[in-house]
Amino acid sequence: MATGRTHRPATRSRGIPEATVARLPLYLRALTALSERSVPTVSSEELAAAAGVNSAKLRKDFSYLGSYGTRGVGYDVEYLVYQISRELGLTQDWPVVIVGIGNLGAALANYGGFASRGFRVAALIDADPAMAGKPVAGIPVQHTDELEKIITDNGVSIGVIATPAGAAQQVCDRLVAAGVTSILNFAPTVLTVPDGVDVRKVDLSIELQILAFHEQRKAGEEAAAHEGAVPAPAGRDDSTDQGPDGDVPAVMPA
Ligand SMILES: NC(=O)c1ccc[n+]([C@@H]2O[C@H](COP(=O)([O-])OP(=O)(O)OC[C@H]3O[C@@H](n4cnc5c(N)ncnc54)[C@H](O)[C@@H]3O)[C@@H](O)[C@H]2O)c1
């Protein structure tokens, strides 16, 4: 499991627990799909199923937003999209920089889903001089020498690190010194940051390891079932069920 610090208390100042904040994007994704199909209202059960979350937990989460739905009608889809987007800070544009434009950085730069969710890729930065000026996803790569200027000029507060692990801390330090206060780290290393800086870590190999654990367990249970013991249980979605603290998506605290 990833380790490290998020530098945020378990409950934010406005009283929304971190576990609820971590589920808001799941609700938003499900609600956006409903909105695109022009569905006007949704019940807590339907929405919970679409988001992969328990419906009692969903109702509790929405109570933090002051959204209780209407008995017999459910929740207003458009209004909830607005409420959750506002809560997540998505009603404003967030310029992000991606540092390390190799296989992963280029794939991230090419991913259209950021822009449609309000995250504009303001710049692509790499240490390789041979890459400077080359366009990736239509954006010319800039050299790391320019990093501080790029952050300042674009008012960037969110940085994405997709460099090799050995370079990540140094890149992180430069981003933070230049004014970045949120970092999404793809490099397989634990970053140290000062208070007030949020780090989230994405590690797909950890997700695969968790799946491997369940595969192994299922195989063991099947073998036991063949011997007439316990029946194998149905599959589960661990990305949205992480114990008493609630559902957490594949992005983890650093
Ligand atoms: N989190 C995940 O699920 C996941 C998945 C794949 C890869 N990764 C990690 O992402 C990172 C990138 O993987 P990749 O396959 O794209 O590697 P890559 O070698 O293709 O690309 C790395 C890029 O970083 C650049 N770079 C190196 N040092 C730098 C520095 N100090 N500043 C700026 N740029 C620098 C290199 O020039 C290169 O272009 C690795 O750490 C890898 O382990 C994570």
TrEMBL record:
Signal peptide: none annotated. It comes from Streptomyces phaeofaciens. Belongs to the transcriptional regulatory Rex family. This is Redox-sensing transcriptional repressor Rex. HAMAP family: Rex. Homodimer. It holds the Pfam family CoA_binding. Modulates transcription in response to changes in cellular NADH/NAD(+) redox state. Residues 89-190 form the CoA-binding domain. Transmembrane segments: none annotated.
